[in-house]
Structures are given as C-alpha cells and as structure tokens.
C-alpha cells in the first residue's frame, strides 16, 4: 500500500537547461599531465553500485558519485556541498533531503527527480520482482518542494541511517530515457517523478529494469557514455579489458561543483600483477599487499627508498569465539578459558615481524581509534571480566573443568596469522590445564558449518549497521560463529535501529558490547591490517580504514610530488 502525494510545482525547465548549457573548465587545482597508477584486483561491473554493491563498484562510486555524506569510522560525515539533510518532524518521523546545486558530468543538474528515484530504490520499489519481499510494505511517497531540489520523506518509524537513506546512484534523466522512451532529459526526469508519485505499476517496472540492468557494463566493446555519467569529483573516462584483467581510467569531472577538487589529471587502475611491490616506483605508484612474512623485507627496503607504508585495518577483527555448548555450556568455564588467553601473545606469534601493524582490540562492534570504541572500552567492562587472570589454573578448576579437558580449536591453516595465534593459544591454555586439540582446517567455511569444535580463531566483520549487529549477535542472526540468545541484547539492537542521534547510538552500542562481554562469548584480539605502499613521488594519499571504498574515498587529496 502506497499513499500518493503530488508534486508541488513542475520542474523549472528553463533554468535547468541554462545550467546544462554551461561547459565548465577543469578545476584550477588539476595539474596537467599528472598521472597516478594504482595496482588493484577489482573489476568495475556496473556504474550503479546500489544495484551491484561489489567492492570494486563501491570503490569507483566513491570517486564518481557525490552524496549527502559518507560513513567514516562507523559514523556519518556530512557533505554540505552536495546538500543538507534535516529532521523536520518527529511524529511522524520526517526528513528533508535538500540539494545544493550539484550537476551530472553532462551538465544536467541533479534535482528532485534524482532524489525521488533514490527514494524509490531505498524503499524497495525498484527491487527485482524475484527478490522483493512477499509482505506488502506501507510507504508514503515523498513531498517535492516548490524549488524542485528537495523532497520530504516520512518514515513509519525513526531510522538510524536517515542522513544517508536517500542515495543518488544513477541519473534520473538517463533512467527515464532508457525506461520510458523520452529523448529530452527534462521530460524524462518529469516522467520518473510522475511514475513514482502516481505509483504507475507499468512505468515502475520499466524503471526498475533500467535501474537494475542498464548500468551494467558490457563484457566487451564500447561502454555507452550515458551510463558512466558522474556527479562526483572524478568520472570514468575509459574501461579496458585484457588478458591481465580490467583497467579503468579516472579523470576529473569538469562539472563537479563540490570541494575539494582533484589535483591529478588521471588515475589509472590497473591489474596488480603477481608481484606488485616489485613495480612500485616503476609501473605502479600505489599497491596493496597482505602483511605476510615473505614481503616484510621488501616493504622495509621500499621504505628506505622513501616509499610510504600505511597499515589501516580492513574492517575485520581477529577474535577467539567459544561455543556455549558442551564443555562451555557454563558461563564460568567460558570466562576461565578466555581469561587464560593472552591476546598480545597471539598477536606477536600470529603476526611475527608485522606485529606492530596489528592494533590490539577489546571490542567486537567498533574499531580502535573511533569514539564508539572508546566509549565501549569505558562502559563494557571487558578488561575486568575477560582479561588479567591472577591464576588461570585455579580459575579453570573453580569452574569445575578437569585438567586436560579437551578443547577442539578451529582455525585456518592457510592463514599465517591464524597458525601463529593458535600456537600461542595452545601453549598458554595448556599451561592453565586445558587440553587443546588442533582442529585446524584448510576449508574454514565447511568446518564452521559442521560445528564439531569448541572454539575458533577467526576474522569477523566489524558491523556497521544495526542489521549487521543483529546478524552477528541477535537471536535470529545467521552470521554468527557462536549463537547465544539474549533478550536484552535483541531489545538493544532494535533500539539502535531506531536511534537517530549519534551520541545515543554510541551509548547503545556500548550497552550491546557489554552484553557480549557479560556472556563471555568471545575474546577480541586485533583488527586485521592491509598494507598499502605509496611511491615517494606521490603525496596526499590516506587510505581509509574499513571496507567502504578505502582507497578512492580520498582521491581528491592525491598529488604528484614536484
């Protein structure tokens, strides 16, 4: 059921066309002829990263799509150069999405049509029929303001991600042209608005097909220019495929009106090859590698030649999880086992010479260095409850666990870190009287499903959304290593999903973390780093921690050193 609301006033066609007629030059910040080449193993498959949210598509979108802001270290950072998002009503919960004056790279302005299309996508109206939920969802279509550059959206309940819920992934005028047969861009925009607000089933079906499929890149041949339109600081100039993989060229978007603007004339994303470190200073300026023993000397040698090495975490945390069944059915047994494990020893044995790159962690829901992590450290009680055993042997005995009780510990034998961490865990736990059984495997996915283990050393994604938290730690979660129902935790997760204030959200996350600590289910060890090598001729590169476009989210700051 969808409640219809009408467009307040028609689009201002003359003004829009006047804007489109301008052909701006490149920003003054761009230094002609400068090129930075990056080794990557991604593949751009769609210019609509919302429809196909692969890591590579999201990475390219970070450079080529403007928006109301982005999530950095788990919290929203606004971009008021694109527009402003404000809560204009609490009951019912109503949010206004108000554009500044952004433009697509073909000169067509972003306006209400783009926001309405973004709302339709976020609301599930453009979800393919075979993926749509069976239950009918009650939605109230947005109100479009008199200037046609803003919409007001009323939600059934407060939503935690209200600032970023509306995302302009692709141009409404291109969707309207492809789906509804209009040649004129402004007529196409108007048709998209009308189709959504009138809930025109046939038109929405065509719009859905265009939104989901028409921005997919062909496997070979030329890419249609209109599907590569950009609203961000860069645009995709060329996409080439070859035997070594795909390469993508990004150039500054002359129509971009935000800040900051690019400094380099071209970014080349090329296949990293078998040994990217060997190409630093030659064919590559930036490369990613895993922190393994075999490349430590090479990285050190590059740093001696003034190359820079960064080790931001990749959005995952290493931890020891215990299953609350069998031997560990009792809380006291779980706590005694986890308190016998010295996390620092696991880092040192697991990482070896790379140990300094692994930031120790005491949380599962946030990463070191964030404000949420600091608050969780203050409130969750991890240090008092799960570390610092005065006598691990006495704690085991007091928990009623006999000396030598077998603990089957699962870990990934193909991971250097996991192998070393297991060795450290085994030695410390055996000293405390636990009978550690080596249950290492070459197939973690299959082994974790079998469930014939007591504890596991593994990487876990640091959850970003309440849905992520629920999947890992909720009673109905399907992404957890260990399942342990807790009504209080479920209530807090539900509360988090409706919390619109960043400060309140931090407090609730800390409370959820406290329930995990209280249940003695897991011992965080460290966040997992990625190693980024940057040639000395390149400046301004800061790779973002986490999973959300770590590389290109900061590409406007890149420069070639004079």
Automatic annotation (TrEMBL):
PANTHER family: MONOACYL PHOSPHATIDYLINOSITOL TETRAMANNOSIDE-BINDING PROTEIN LPQW-RELATED, PERIPLASMIC BINDING COMPONENT OF ABC TRANSPORTER
Alphabetized SUPFAM superfamilies for the sequence: Periplasmic binding protein-like II
Species this protein is from: Microbacterium koreense
Record's keyword annotation contains Signal: yes
Superkingdom of origin organism: Bacteria
Signal peptide location: 1-20
Lineage: Bacteria, Bacillati, Actinomycetota, Actinomycetes, Micrococcales
Assigned keywords, A-Z: Signal
Keyword Aminoacyl-tRNA synthetase: no
Record's protein name: Solute-binding protein family 5 domain-containing protein
């Amino acid at each position: 059921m969808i409640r219809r609301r009408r467009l307040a006033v028609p689009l201002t066609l003359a003004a829009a066309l006047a804007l489109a007629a301008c052909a701006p030059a490149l920003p003054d910040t761009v230094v002609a002829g400068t090129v930075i080449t990056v080794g990557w193993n991604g593949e751009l498959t769609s210019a609509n990263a919302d429809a196909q949210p692969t890591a590579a598509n999201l990475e390219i979108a970070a450079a080529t799509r403007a928006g109301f802001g982005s999530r950095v270290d788990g919290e929203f950072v606004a971009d008021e150069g694109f527009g402003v998002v404000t809560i204009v009503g609490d009951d019912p919960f109503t949010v206004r999405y108000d554009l500044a004056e952004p433009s697509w790279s073909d000169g067509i302005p972003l306006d209400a049509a783009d926001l309405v299309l973004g709302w339709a996508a976020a609301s599930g109206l453009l979800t393919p029929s075979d993926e749509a939920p069976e239950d009918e969802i009650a939605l109230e279509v947005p109100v479009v303001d008199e200037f046609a550059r803003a919409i007001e959206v009323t939600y059934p309940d407060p939503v935690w991600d209200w600032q970023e819920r509306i995302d302009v992934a692709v141009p409404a005028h291109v969707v309207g042209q492809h789906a509804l047969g209009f040649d004129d861009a402004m007529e196409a925009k108007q048709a998209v608005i009308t189709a959504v607000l009138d809930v025109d089933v046939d038109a929405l079906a065509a719009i859905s097909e265009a939104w989901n499929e028409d921005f997919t890149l062909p496997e070979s041949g030329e890419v249609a220019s209109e599907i590569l339109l950009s609203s961000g600081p860069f645009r995709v100039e060329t996409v080439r495929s070859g035997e070594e993989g795909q390469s993508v060229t990004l150039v500054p978007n002359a129509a971009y009106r935000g800040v900051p603007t690019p400094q380099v004339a071209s970014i080349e994303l090329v296949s990293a090859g078998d040994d990217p470190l060997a190409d630093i200073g030659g064919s590559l300026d930036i490369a990613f590698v895993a922190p393994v023993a075999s490349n430590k000397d090479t990285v050190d040698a590059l740093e001696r030649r003034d190359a820079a090495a960064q080790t931001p975490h990749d959005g995952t945390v290493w931890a020891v999880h215990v299953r609350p069944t069998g031997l560990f059915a009792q809380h006291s047994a779980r706590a005694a086992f986890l308190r016998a494990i010295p996390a620092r020893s696991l880092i040192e044995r697991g990482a070896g010479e790379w140990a300094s790159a692994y930031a120790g962690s005491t949380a599962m829901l946030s990463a070191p260095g964030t404000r949420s992590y600091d608050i969780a450290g203050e409130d969750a009680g991890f240090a008092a409850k799960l570390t610092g055993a005065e006598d691990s042997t006495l704690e085991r005995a007091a928990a009623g666990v006999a000396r030598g009780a077998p603990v089957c510990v699962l870990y990934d034998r193909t991971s250097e870190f996991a192998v070393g961490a297991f060795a450290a865990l085994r030695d410390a736990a055996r000293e405390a009287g636990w009978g550690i059984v080596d249950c290492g495997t070459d197939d973690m996915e299959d082994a974790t499903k079998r469930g014939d283990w007591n504890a596991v050393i593994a990487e876990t994604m640091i959850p970003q959304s309440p849905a992520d938290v629920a999947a890992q730690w909720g009673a109905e979660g399907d992404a957890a290593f260990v399942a342990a129902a807790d009504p209080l935790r479920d209530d807090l997760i539900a509360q988090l999903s409706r919390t619109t204030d960043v400060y309140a959200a931090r407090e609730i996350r800390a409370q959820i973390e406290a329930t995990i600590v209280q249940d003695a289910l897991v011992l965080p060890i460290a966040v997992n780093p990625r190693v980024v090598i940057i040639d000395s001729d390149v400046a301004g590169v800061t790779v973002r921690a986490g999973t959300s476009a770590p590389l290109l989210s900061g590409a406007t700051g890149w420069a070639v050193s004079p």
